[in-house]
Amino acid sequence: MSSEHADEFDYDYLVIGAGSGGIASARRAATYGAKVGVVEKGRLGGTCVNVGCVPKKVMWNAASIAETLHDMKHYGFSGYDSDAITFDWGFIKENRD
Questions:
Q1: Cβ-count burial of 97 within 10 angstroms (0-12 exposed, 13-18 middle, 19+ buried)?
Q2: Cα–Cα distance between 80 and 83 in angstroms, integer?
Q3: CB distance 13 to 36 below 8 Å
Q4: Average pLDDT over every residue of 62-87
Q5: What is the band of 82 on the pLDDT scale with cuts at 50, 70, 90?
Q6: Are 19 and 39 in contact, with CB atoms under 8 Å apart?
Q7: By C-alpha distance, which of 45, 31, 20 is closest to 12?
Q8: End-to-end CA distance of the chain
Q9: Helices 53-71 & 89-96 angle (0-180, nearest 10)
Q10: What number of H helices and E strands is found in the chain?
Q11: Is the backbone of residue 41 left (phi > 0), alpha (psi -120 to 50) or beta?
Q12: Phi, psi at residue 95, to the nearest 5°?
């Protein structure tokens, strides 16, 4: 590009999609001095962070803990059959979302 057209564009590098890959790409380009723009129709982070991998891991971990608590009597722990252990679905859902 000739220097007479250098000011034609607002950005040196435009990223479409602000998922994990898009954000990483934008950050890398910025470290090299590029003026970067990011286009995303939804929340930053993309599918994995917002509705895929990360929320699934929160639910998986909660289920794993529940299973461990259920089996604790086999390892000498007590209290599962009492009201001492509770679960707050609203709390886990709010933290997941």
A1: exposed
A2: 8
A3: yes
A4: 85
A5: confident
A6: no
A7: 31
A8: 45
A9: 150
A10: 4, 2
A11: alpha
A12: -75, -30
Confidence of residue 6 (pLDDT cuts 50, 70, 90): low
Which residues have a Cβ under 8 Å from the Cβ of 61 and sit 6 or more positions away? none
Q: Cβ of 18: how many Cβ atoms within 10 Å?
A: 20
User: What are the contacts of 87-94 at 24+ separation with CB within 8 A?
Assistant: 92/58, 92/59, 92/62
Q: What are phi and psi of 19, to 5 degrees?
A: -80, -170
pTM over 0.85: no
| Range list of H helices, 32-88 | 46-50, 53-71
